[in-house]
Amino acid sequence: MARITVRGVSEIRGPIIIIEGVTGIRMGEYLEVKLPNKPTRKGRVLAIEEERVIILLYQGTYELEKDEIETEFFGRTMQLFVAEDMIGRVFNSQGEPLDGLPGIYSDEYRDINGSPINPTSRIYPRDYIETGISSIDSMNTLVRGQKLPIFTGAGLPNNQLIGQIVKQARIVGAEGEDKFAIVFGAMGLTMDDYIYFQRLFEETGTLDKVVMFTNLASDSAAERLITPRVALTTAEYLAFDKGYHVLAILSDITNYCQALREVSVALETVPARKGFPGYMYSDLASIYERAGIIEGSQGSITLIANLTMPNDDITHPIPDLTGYITEGQIILDRSLHNRGIYPPIDVLGSLSRLMKDGIGEGYTRKDHPSLSNQLYASYAEGLDKRRLAEVIGKKELNRRDQILYEFADKFEDNFVNQGDVYRSIEDSLNLGWSLLSNLPETELTKVSEALIREHIQNKGADSD
Amino acid sequence: MPHSAEERARIVTIKGSTVEVRGLSSYRMGEITYVGDEKLIGEVIEIERDFATVQVYEPLEGLKINDPVYPTGKSLSAELGPGLLSNIFDGIQRPLEQIKKLSASSFIQRGIQINALDRHKKWQFEPNKDLTKGHFVKGGDVLGSVQETETIKCNILVPPNTNGELLSIQENGEFKITDPIAELKGSDKKKEELTLMHEWHVRIARPFLKKLPVREPLVTGQRIIDMFFPIAKGGTAAIPGGFGTGKTILQHQLSKWSDADVVIYIGCGERGNEMTDVLRSFPKLVDPHTQNPLMDRTSLIANVSNMPVAAREASIYMGITMAEFYRDQGFNVLLTADSTSRWAEALREIAGQLEEMPVEEGYPAYLGARLANFYERAGQVIALGSPYREGSINITAAVSPPGGDFSEPVTANTKRFVKTFWGLDPNLANRKHFPSINWLNSYSGYIKVIEEWALESGLEDWGRYRQEMFTILQKDDELQHIAELIGSKALPADEQLIILVADIIKEGFLQQNAFDKVDSFCPIEKQMKMMKLMLLFYNRAEVLIRNGCPISLITNLKTVQILKRIKEDVPNDNIIQMNKIEDYIHTDMEELGSKYGYKV
Ligand SMILES: Nc1ncnc2c1ncn2[C@@H]1O[C@H](COP(=O)(O)OP(=O)(O)OP(=O)(O)O)[C@@H](O)[C@H]1O
Ligand SMILES: [Mg+2]
Questions:
Q1: Are residues B29 and B160 in the same domain?
Q2: Are A388 and B483 within 8 A, CB to CB?
Q3: Which ligand has an atom closest to residue B252 CA?
Q4: Residue B472: exposure state from Cβ atoms within 10 A (0-12, 13-18, ≥19)
Q5: For burial by CB atoms within 10 Å, which of A185, A459, B28, B79 has the most?
């Protein structure tokens, strides 16, 4: 398509520039702004009003001089060259190498915005991924092709948890286990966190399986809007064209959403909640929904995203809208963390929506569905009793309540608090049963008698 | 296209999901236009002097100023005829399977123009024997029928607003959907051909003869609904709840198990995998009322969250129009929409692009009116035409309030127009009590009607059981507040008994595991029997307590555990086992009584 070049702009506002008096520009098209003696900046056409073209510059507008700049419109959307040998490489958000190696030259390229997967082409994800973490494997099972964010708070060990998953995760029973890749999209990451991930990949020997796209805290905010798209475009290529099982890790969605807000404010869109634009739901969906499995391809995209809840507030629009789109969430809890429990996973608040079809006979183990139901129920009751004891004192609890109270403690101390070690799903489930054996049988109403007989030999505690 | 170069309409602005157009030969609200060289489908939503704003049902990337826009003279319409069931469409009724085939891609491509109904497939048409040449027919009259799926025989109707003298009607035979099956001479003496399908403007409600009061329940097999907060056939219900509280699962359950004839399931701005789940599981599930695959009575509309926003707005209207089509044939239709909040957000997004003045949280002033309009299309009606037919539409709609806050505009406005409110409670969901319908703040406006129905249907005890259980749950709520302060140990034994029985009801009756083979669907007879047994337990235990029996002896009875597990342990049709449990309860209580010398 013919390129169009224009000199000068008429307005500069935040990351937005407006060019007037130009025709033939396409909605959404990719463009580059050339500056004398400075690196070229990249952008996208957001709206066109007759001869006024409204443009978002990913590297911002700082130091732009109104009349000096030259904008070249490419006549097409932003594209990314994709190739299998991206694996093991480090790029910036635009797919330019940061590792000193040459750029990717390939005859394959993709529009970074992707297209929605036809629901009739999806394969419903059912194969669980063993993470080796009890609170996840038994209680919030992760499934290959799932999108599952980690809702965390400032200072909580979410990166360590991701690290542990990367270290331990096995895609049980999957063919082509060797065809495994990680696509990492860093969005506004601090240098510390960035280094953490780099080390992690080095230490776990996965560095040669990782494609990194990097936007650091010091990089432009608007550029964060393309990081996840570039990362997922790569993931789609590897998964759906090349048959890789891709684990896509995005960190941190909160930084992404703040950038989105910044741009929408500059565009003077009517805000919905807390200044975030009304289209944030659709925008986030256009990222998260790219995970999954499709017919006729061997691969899959499993998406794990860090999301720092501002002020630990789960009702904040960022976690809220995310929760409405993703297939569950892992919530980290500050009070567990403060008590030294690692990983501090809030087992009840967390959810895996794809668990229902990924566990049980033929998947994990026959007893898994009812066992996890019993553990949720007894733990929830135990927490009620803990709250009650805070008011009336533990001694005032009746016998049954005390047993449940203690169950909650044991559950947190032994089951949740597993440390940075691997536990097989078998071991996790068995541990669950051994904790249940402390409860009187009258409490075990979610599991059938047959299962009780099978898994609790000496029916533990007495009844009163 | 019959438009000369001069009068060609052109794009003047492009923004979000709308374009502004100048130079349309005529300006009509709601007109479908094709936008750009790829002929993307759009609809006129605002007219200002020489400009029309068109909302486009596909992504706008690549459009330029001055690109052509073609009027069509048509409004956004649904194709109505056999072939809708067992099928899946996008928000503007393009069949997704066909899109996949045409584009040879797993991803949805732009600019695909394709009819909703298959033009090649042949259907076996059976004419209405009562009609003969010369007969005067009018809108809604049944011309004949087609066995659309094993379950559903689709009546072929004279389209509403059409009438005339029947010049000919086809014999029994195979026809394509666009083949003429009858010919009319209208009042203007013009001949008109009727086919197996017709079109209808989705934003206009289809006419009927008369709205009737609702009179029987939609039996859902979900205990908390059927027994506590029932919905009538032709009724409306909202399911508000924060993320992960169980809206979608509940809607899947309703679509699977309720005794509707036809189900229209609209996935409006929700997850792709959820639609895939329905698509893959329904053909394998058996409809408990007909023993046919569930898919045979189901039509899906999937405009998932990352599909275009404007088509999301349209999807709701598309769905309700399809529902009306089956209602008019004389069916009871269940329409579930997941989620109406995403639809409202689409309205908001488009209103923002039109620079309309927002009123609350960015929503346009007409949000309430649009919602009212939608829910008004539910109801029990006498259909137009002969023979006499009654049909109904149920609407059950999910609402996704930001932060789970029910005071936000979409929930608050919805509450004004629905009669049943199943409020999902995050505290219940958190402890995995599902369905997480809160029994204290939910309500049904159909209790009286259903009480009358129950009396006539041999379920005389429905109202009494319901009331007794409710009373226990309400007392329990009060007692819980006290127990939170002093511990339940300090409560008198009769109050501890209430807490115990409430616990049995909550766990054994209100909770219902959608993923358990037996529990997923609970027939009404079993529901009634379960209530009976739980209340029997309460009444007998109460006598013991009154006579001084300590509560701990009752708490530890095996029957407590048995009552909590009836739902899963007792097969749905096993009345004998239920009767045995009844005997247990009597024996247990009598043993306690005789062992300790208490009167029972
Ligand atoms: N009746 C049920 N039985 C068992 N589990 C249930 C039931 N209802 C809900 N759940 C559990 O709750 C999870 C969330 O339910 P669901 O997906 O319906 O939530 P939702 O309200 O639709 O959330 P969102 O608004 O994010 O779409 C399910 O994945 C399932 O684990
Ligand atoms: Mg849902």
A1: no
A2: yes
A3: 1
A4: buried
A5: A185
When pLDDT is cut at 50, 70 and 90, the band that residue A460 belongs to is: very low
Domain boundary among B447, B471, B495: B447
Q: Does B303 touch chain A (CB under 8 A)?
A: no
Q: Is residue B252 part of a domain?
A: yes
Say if A401 is an interface residue toward chain B (CB within 8 Å).
yes
| pLDDT value at residue B432 | 92
Contact residues, chain B, for A273 at CB < 8 Å: 361, 402
B145: nearest Cα among B413, B331, B352: B331
C-alpha A435 – ligand 1 centre gap (Å)? 26
B 466-495 → A contacts, CB under 8 A:
483-490
Q: Is the pLDDT of residue B318 over 70?
A: yes
Does B486 sit within 8 Å of A373, measured CB to CB?
Answer: no
Task: Please tell me the distance in Å from B414's CA to the nearest CA on chain A.
Answer: 19
B95 shares a domain with B31: no
What is the DSSP secondary structure assignment for residue A147, as one 8-state letter?
E
Q: DSSP of B404-439, one letter per residue? A: G-TTSHHHHHHHHH-SEE--B-HHHHHTT-SS-B-T
**CATH number of the domain enclosing B506:** 1.10.1140.10
Q: Which residues pair with A56 in a beta bridge?
A: A16, A44
B66 neighbors B35 (Cβ within 8 angstroms): no
Asked if the interface predicted TM-score (ipTM) of this complex is over 0.85, the answer is: yes
Give the pLDDT confidence score for residue A178 in this predicted structure.
67
CATH 3.40.50.12240 residue spans of chain A = 80-358
Mutate to test the interface with A, among B10, B14, B110, B274 (most CBs of A within 10 A): B14
At residue A132's C-alpha, the angle toward residues B271 and A359, to 5°, is 50
- Domain of B67? 5-74
**DSSP helix/strand/coil, B464:** helix
Chain B within 8 Å of A196 (Cβ-Cβ)?
Answer: no
CATH code reported for the domain at A4-77? 2.40.10.170
Q: Which CATH architecture has domain A80-358?
A: 3-Layer(aba) Sandwich (3.40)
Cβ <8 Å between A25 and B66: no
Query: Which residue minimizes the CA distance to atom 7 of ligand 1?
Result: B434
Does the residue B434 lie in any domain?
yes
Tell me the pLDDT tens digit for each residue of A281-339.
Answer: 999 999 999 999 999 998 999 999 999 999 999 999 999 999 999 999 999 999 999 99
Interface of A with B in 84-123 (CB under 8 A): 113-123
Same domain? For B176 and B255 the reply is no
Would residue B453 count as lying in a domain? Answer: no
Helix (H, G, I), strand (E, B) or coil at B380: strand
Chain B stretch 84-103, residues whose beta carbon is closer than 8 A to a beta carbon of chain A: 88, 96-97, 99-100
- Is B115 within the bounds of a domain? no
For the beta sheet containing A328-331, the strands, ordered from the edge strand earlier in sequence to the opposite edge, are A90-92, A210-216, A180-189, A245-251, A300-308, A147-152, A328-331, A351-352
Which ligand minimizes its atom distance to the CA of A350? Answer: 1
Angle at alpha carbon of residue A110, lines to A104 and A113, rounded to 5° = 125
B555 and A289: CB-CB below 8 Å? no
Q: Are both B219 and B341 inside the same structural domain?
A: yes
**CB of A409 less than 8 A from some CB of B:** no
